Amino acid sequence: MWFAIFGGIFILIGLAIGYLLRKILARRKIDSYEAKIEKMLEDARNEAKEILINAKDKAVKILEDAKKEERERREELSAIEKRIERKEEFIDKKFQDLEVIKQELRKKIAKIREMKQNLEELKEQELKLIEKVAGMTKEQATEELFKKIEQENSQTILDRIRKIEQEGLETYERKAKEILAAIIQRLASAQATEITTSSVALPSEEFKGKIIGKEGRNIRAFEKETGVELIVDETPDAIIISSFDPIRRQVAKIALEKLIADGRIQPARIEEFVRKAQEEINKNIKEAGEEAVREVGLVGLDPKLIQLLGRLKYRTSFGQNVLRHSIEAAHLAGMLASELNADITICKKAALLHDIGKALDHEVEGSHVEIGRKILQKFKIDDAIIKAMQSHHEEYPYETLESVIVQTAEAISASRPGARRDTLENYLKRLAELENIAKSFEGVEKAYAIQAGRELRIFVTPEKVDDLVAYNLAKKIAQTIEKELKYPGEIKVMVIRETRVIEYAK
What we know:
506 residues, mainly alpha, three-stranded antiparallel beta sheet, three-stranded mixed beta sheet
């Protein structure tokens, strides 16, 4: 028991001694940390003192530099102020001088106005005096002066007008001729050979009797089915088919040739072979339309419109095949469009379809241009193409460049040498109309159409028509011909004024 008590006392004493030792060690450690902190604080204080000293030195230097710069600025400002003062003095002096000049100018202006007013009054008095002496007003005198100048210089004015017009015409004509000549040379087409009759060869003369038939029944049946006239005359081994409708004439020719080859000519066989010929013609028409479109290089046309186009193969105008004419015009229009930077496709389509109305114009009322417009509208053809084709006979105004090109191409195709044949009646009628138009103008003494109607020579009365009037007369007659007549190519209008003086020596 005592042993336990003493052991507990020793433990307590050990604990107390351990506590004291630990406290002593902790105190020493704390003192060591405090010494370090104190040293760090001392170092920081010394460093702060050095920084403050340096900052003060820099501040003093900056302050001195600022004061120096301020002194320099003040000196500069002082110099500027002196210069401004000198300039203000100069401007004030100039302003005073300007005021003096302004006053002098005002006085001069007032004096000039007064002088101008005096001159106007003197001019008015002088004009009244002149009018009183001359017996006419200012307007009358002016008119008389201009009239006199015009009379004295009419020839000079006329020559000047002619020179200006001639120079412009020569330039434009030369360029136009170059383009048209190049285009025409690039296209060669067939000559006009179409007529209103067709001849069918016979193996022998006995076939004429077979074609006529008993009491003429075969020929009557044939003419009824085809709508043509068969001419059986004394021409050996041939029979003539006459009709102004080329499609009917071609159907009749094919049917008759097949009947002759078959040898059995009777009303029933006639009806059968005419029907077959019509089917063959329809097939040919379709192929002709497709071939025309391919030749021109177009796509996208309605097959029914192509069928109508093919019918033009059997249509002629003054001996010119209308389908070949349309193809030729399309090629010409395409080449013209490429030269003039126009739409080539529109020009080609419009030129190819410009005479499409002729495929129906014997079945529908109206001109072929109007019928053609309705056909193209029905097939929903582009409005630009319709505008380009509708002006080729000048029934409608030229709305686009393409319409002028199509009209030009059509005229070239129709008027080239050998393209068309005209009847003697139409030829004589055109010549008479040309002369009558010229004779309808006042002052015309005689008029003669020469060079197959390509030139109109007009003789005027010199006492009624002077040179200037003759010049205007030629233009008026040419304009009237353009407005009232339709003709291929160009007509030259020549006005001739001559003065003949006759005296007799006795």
